[in-house]
């Protein structure tokens, strides 16, 4: 391990060693210089461009008011159209669903209860009928006496 470190570090009197020692200082000074330039450019830009923005963008609120005044009939039409087509039916359906919710729950529970009672009644009736009903009689086979006496036909 010591031999690797000794071979990786250049001798102290070589130019590479001097550059290796000065590198952190060069990096820090370059970073400081670039950040200072960026801050100065931003400051000058804000001082110079801020009045230009005020001069060029000051008519925008006036233009926006004029545009809104011109488009106000369209805005009113869209508002009334949406109120008639979308908002009023939605509010009506929401109100009716709130009003009829208790009846909906009541009749839903009544239907489920009726279905369960019907199934239980069906199974009870099937059990009673099976318990009371006589077992079926064995099947009766009717034999024709003439058919027993006849001989089968032979094809020759």
Compute the number of strand runs.
0
Count the helices. How many? 4
Mean pLDDT: 84
Biggest pleated sheet: none
Distance between the termini: 115 Å
Spans of at least 5 consecutive residues with low confidence: none
Order of SSEs: HHHH
Q: Which range does the strand content fall in? A: under 5%
Shape: elongated
Helix content: over 70%
> From the alpha-carbon coordinates, what is the Rg to the nearest angstrom?
51 Å
Helices and strands: which structural class?
A: mainly alpha
Summarize the model shown:
83% of the residues lie in helices and 0% in strands. The chain has 156 residues and is mainly α.
Structure, explained:
This protein is mainly α. Among the domains are: 16-57; 73-132. The protein is 83% helix and 0% strand. The chain has four helices and no strands. It has helices spanning 2-8, 15-57, 59-132, 145-149. The relative contact order is 0.02. The mean pLDDT is 84.
What is the fold's blueprint, element by element?
Blueprint: H1 2-8, H2 15-57, H3 59-132, H4 145-149
Tag the structure with descriptive keywords.
156 residues; mainly alpha; 83% helix; 0% strand; elongated
């Amino acid at each position: 391990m010591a031999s690797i470190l000794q071979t990786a570090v250049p001798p102290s009197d070589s130019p590479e060693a001097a550059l290796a020692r000065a590198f952190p200082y060069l990096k820090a000074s370059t970073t400081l210089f670039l950040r200072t330039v960026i801050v100065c450019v931003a400051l000058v830009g804000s001082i110079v461009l801020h009045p230009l923005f005020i001069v060029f963008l000051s008519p925008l609120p006036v233009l926006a008011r004029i545009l809104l005044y011109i488009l106000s009939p369209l805005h009113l039409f869209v508002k009334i159209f949406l109120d008639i087509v979308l908002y009023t039916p939605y509010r009506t359906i929401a109100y009716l669903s709130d009003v009829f919710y208790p009846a909906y729950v009541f009749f839903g529970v009544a239907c489920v209860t009726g279905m369960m009672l019907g199934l239980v009644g069906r199974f009870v009736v099937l059990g009673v009928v099976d318990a009371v009903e006589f077992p079926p009689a064995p099947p009766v086979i009717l034999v024709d006496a003439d058919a027993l006496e006849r001989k089968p036909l032979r094809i020759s």
